[in-house]
Amino acid sequence: MSVAESSVFPIPPDVLLAPMSLARPNRALLFALIATLGSVIGGLVGYLLGYFALYLVEPWIESAGYAESYLLAVDWFQQWGFWVVLVAGFSPIPYKVFTVAAGATGVALLPFVLGSLIGRGARFFLVATLVAWGGARLEPWLLRHVERIGWISVVALLVAMLWLQYG
After folding, report:
1. In tens digits, what is the pLDDT along the chain, a chain of 167 residues?
2. Cβ contacts of residue 91 below 8 Å, gap of 6+?
3. CA 17/CA 38 separation, integer angstroms
4. Which of 29, 51, 107, 155 could form a disulfide with 81 if both were Cys (CB 3.0 to 4.6 A apart)?
5. Domain assignments of the chain as residue spans, ordered by start
6. Residues of 115-130 as b/e, b for ≥16 C-beta within 10 angstroms?
7. d(C-alpha 138, C-alpha 154), whole Å
8. What is the 3-state secondary structure (H, E, C) of 66-125?
9. Rounded distance, CA 39 to CA 60, Å?
10. What is the value of pTM for the model shown?
């Protein structure tokens, strides 16, 4: 499920990871590792889709007058590539959108993979650990508030990035 979700599937792995971690708390970290590795593999599939899809639509981008906007997006991804992928991997923003965009804009592969490993790993290990630790009483709360937690984390990461860049 993690492989498919990172490239095309709409349902996040958290939906299965949480109950699996609840049912087998002693295996929660293994489940998180499997979800993380699967998600990174799926991210690479999305990256390749973006890479090859761009090749097919690049003439249309230029003829439609979007070349300047596209170059701006490429610059943003190249400047912040690792951070964009890391934030997207942890956030409630659909990760697949960023995997395809990273391939389409030519984000370097190593920062893409590292950002994916850290972002997706942080998300899945957090979910698995909290559910394994908090048990049945925490699981519904976590699933209800995971999006809010994700957005708070995104804001914190963005503030940290800006502080590091300009502080």
Report:
1. 777 777 666 677 877 888 899 899 999 999 999 999 999 999 999 899 888 887 776 776 688 776 776 676 667 677 777 888 888 788 777 787 788 888 988 888 999 999 999 999 998 998 899 889 888 887 778 767 777 777 787 777 778 767 877 87
2. 119, 150, 151, 153, 154
3. 12
4. 107
5. 2-166
6. bbbbbbbbbbbbbbeb
7. 22
8. CHHHHHHHHHHHHHHHHHHHHHHHHCCCCHHHHHHHHHHHCCCHHHHHHHHHHHHHHHHH
9. 31
10. 0.77
Q: How many CB atoms lie within 10 A of CB 113?
A: 16
Are the CB atoms for 6 and 45 separated by under 8 Å?
yes
**Contact partners, residue 26, CB within 8 Å, separation at least 6:** 132
Q: What phi and psi values does residue 9 have, to the nearest 5 degrees?
A: -80, 135
At which residue do the structure tokens 């190593």 appear? 110
- 115, 83 contact by CB (below 8 A): yes
Round to whole Å and give the CA distance between 32 and 29. Answer: 5
Q: Token pair 């609840």 is at which residue?
A: 22
